[in-house]
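From the pipeline queue, job 12 of 40. The input is one protein chain; the requested action is below.

Action: predict structure.
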Amino acid sequence: MEGVTTAIVAFLFVCVVFPSLVKNRPQWYAALAAIVLVIFFGALRYAFLDSSGLMRFTGFITGMLQIAAILLLILSTGGLSVRDLAGDMKRAYEVIRRGEEEKEVIIPLTGDQPRSREDREDRGDRGDREGRIVLEVPPERKDADDQRIPLEDEPPRA
């Protein structure tokens, strides 16, 4: 966890040296405050080494503050708001889910309407896909009751 804090502090110093990187100052200051709190909770952890409950609490708070600081630094240097980031993440999720950047829209080239199912059946078309396998369902036989396998509870039929 200290390595993450070190990287965040290093990036904060880079932003101090190159202030043109920061596009949204309030978010940068919030990230700075989060890192100062991370350092405070780290010091509090060392002060009370005997208390395992406090160590767990400070470890959890430290992790949450580090996550917040990273997100705030991304927002401050990118010039984004939280709403913009959420919208970008939603679009990224859709791209990952579908595998494309835009939804597929199918537009007929000639403007003709597709044929109805009844029209295709009347003409004997089996669809546009070649190699399509059509399975025919055999009609029921009248003597199907005689060919049933009797269950254990059923008496044999005569």
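Job complete. Residues 52-78 form the longest helix (27 residues).
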